[in-house]
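Query structure, 228 tokens:
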């Protein structure tokens, strides 16, 4: 079966997993699809999708993920050392990222901790809006940029902020954004966004406990100023 026929049969159209991923539909991809993106190409005997499906089917994702030696992967799977090195590197990256995040258990006790945690934002030339997600002990369990650009209530929507909170089972949320102008005084837009997110958090029972604005000249905390 040609690669194009395989894709058409699997997806209903000629759409590569890499293209699906670029479109932001990573959740639509199976484990073999993701592995195919990493491997990149197949061999003269089988296309990359058949190869990735065979690997997951015959050995399982967990077994492959735990092997660090590319030569062993190459011998087990009957693939080139180049492809096995890419697989080993991908899983090693995952292990290291996870290991670093597990070691760095950041406790947020108040606005100053939030500022120290996100202080690199004061140097950004664009306005970033960031969600910091905490467990019941106020330890950071997830952190992501929600939007980039001039902040409005349209650009920062509760669904974008609270979707991640629900996915990671956060007990509470802190949002942070920067003012490249250097003035950390909140604007009317900032007040509107804060109220909107606070009301949404109250409904979902995932409280917004602070909104911190960071600039080169310091920070402003809605919690500290008792405006939340």
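Result returned for the query:
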């Amino acid at each position: 079966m040609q690669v194009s026929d395989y894709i058409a049969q699997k997806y209903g159209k000629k759409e590569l997993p890499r293209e699906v991923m670029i479109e932001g539909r990573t959740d639509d991809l199976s484990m073999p699809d993701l592995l195919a993106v990493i491997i990149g190409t197949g061999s003269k005997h089988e296309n990359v999708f058949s190869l990735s499906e065979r690997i997951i089917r015959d050995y399982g994702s967990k077994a492959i993920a735990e092997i660090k030696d590319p030569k062993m992967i190459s011998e087990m799977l009957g693939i080139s050392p180049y492809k096995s090195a890419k697989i080993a590197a991908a899983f090693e990256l995952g292990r290291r990222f996870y290991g670093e995040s597990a070691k760095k258990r950041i406790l947020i006790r108040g606005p100053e901790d939030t500022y120290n945690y996100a202080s690199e934002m004061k140097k950004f030339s664009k306005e970033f809006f960031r969600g910091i997600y905490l467990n019941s002990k106020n330890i950071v369990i997830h952190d992501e940029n929600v939007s980039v650009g001039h902040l409005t209530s349209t650009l920062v929507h509760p669904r974008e902020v609270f979707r991640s909170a629900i996915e990671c089972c956060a007990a509470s949320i802190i949002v942070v954004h920067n003012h490249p102008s250097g003035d950390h005084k909140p604007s009317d837009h900032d007040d509107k966004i804060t109220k909107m997110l606070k009301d949404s958090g109250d409904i979902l029972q995932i409280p917004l406990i602070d909104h911190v604005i960071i600039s080169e000249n310091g920070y402003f905390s809605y919690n500290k100023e008792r405006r939340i």
